[in-house]
Amino acid sequence: MSLVEHLIKRYQLQNACRAILSVTHVIFGAKISYVLYSTIRFIIFVSDLYLFLSYWAIDNYYSTD
């Protein structure tokens, strides 16, 4: 996945996250919506970290000549 594709998916995930937060807040209350929102944000963070580390590893692999 390219960096641009990742950023587009991240933007879509953030929008979905906001929608889930508003719907679950109305239906289930603040505590459950906060836990769900935090879980989704953590998944986005791990995805960003994986992308950064993979690009960093590829850059280091090809720059050690």
Notes on the protein architecture:
By secondary structure, this protein is an all-alpha fold. It has one domain (3-63). Helices cover 91% and strands 0% of the residues. The protein has two helices and no strands. The longest helix is centred in the last third of the chain and has 34 residues, at 30-63. The protein is elongated, with a radius of gyration of 16 Å.
Low-confidence stretches: none
Q: Which class best fits the helix and strand makeup? A: mainly alpha
Biggest sheet overview: none
Number of domains: 1
Morphology: elongated
Number of strands: 0
- Structural Rg: 16 Å
**Tally of individual helices:** 2
How far apart, in Å, are the first and last alpha carbons? Answer: 25 Å
Strand residue content: under 5%
Helix content: over 70%
Query: What is the helix/strand order?
Result: HH
Overall average pLDDT: 79
Secondary-structure blueprint:
Layout: H1 3-27, H2 30-63
Helix pairs in contact: 1-2
Annotation keywords:
mainly alpha
Nutshell version of this structure?
The chain is an all-alpha fold and 65 residues long.
